[in-house]
Amino acid sequence: MDKKQQQRRMAYDARNTQSNKTELSQIICNKFLAQAEYQQADTVMWYLHCRSEVRTLSHLRAELMGPKKIVIPYCTTDGNGQNKLGLWLLEDLCELQSGTWGILEPPRSRWGEQAKEVSAACLDLIMVPGVAFDRACGRLGNGAGYYDRLLQDVRPDTTLTGLCFESQLVKEVMMASHDVRMDRVITENNCY
To answer: 162 is in which domain, residue-wise?
Structure first.
């Protein structure tokens, strides 16, 4: 197991054993909503949590009632069979069903629907999950590269905000040249 895999395994373990996930997720999501960048954004990409990630669903449900355009990612492939994130304009949670890895996503029969697909260039702010982060806003993902590929296609002024529990912070994330650094990382204790 290489050092990056070891770092990922340790962060998974920390996230899996984190207590009070629901309460801490509430604090983290409230901080996300309080960002000036969030207040000013028209189009925001949220992730739908799975497994032991910071829980986002209750806050997302409330935000769907507001004026912002809410976009969610789903796992798909491009024309070359390469993994990528599709972007879906979400208006109601009932549009979604359990998909890849049990994550809620639009039904495959609707993928590519013109009125629902969103370009990465339209995103003002992106909520980014991760396995580990550091205080310099480095991010370690699951290793499939979905987010790294998406984040290379956004506008330079799009704000990238990673969400994690303080227990997922490491001294320094081992990042490769294609890995994308966040603008901010929010935990229950701080904003880095």
So the answer is: 3-186
- Report the distance separating Cα 142 and Cα 84, nearest Å: 13
- For 189: left if phi > 0, alpha if psi spans -120 to 50, otherwise beta; the answer is alpha
Range name among 77-81, 123-127, 135-139 with the lowest pLDDT average: 77-81
Number of domains comprising the chain: 1
Is 3 buried (19+), middle (13-18) or exposed (0-12) by CB count in 10 A?
A: exposed
Name 87's bridge partners: 73
pLDDT in tens, 2-29: 888 899 999 999 999 999 999 999 999 9
Region of 166 please: left (phi>0), alpha (psi -120 to 50) or beta.
alpha
Model confidence over 79-113: pLDDT tens digits? 888 888 999 999 999 999 998 778 899 999 999 89
Residue with token string 């984190």: 18
Q: What is the DSSP letter of 27?
A: H
**97 found inside a domain:** yes
Give the domain CATH number at 19: 3.40.50.10420
> Which DSSP category does 191 fall into?
B
Residue 191 counted as domain residue: no
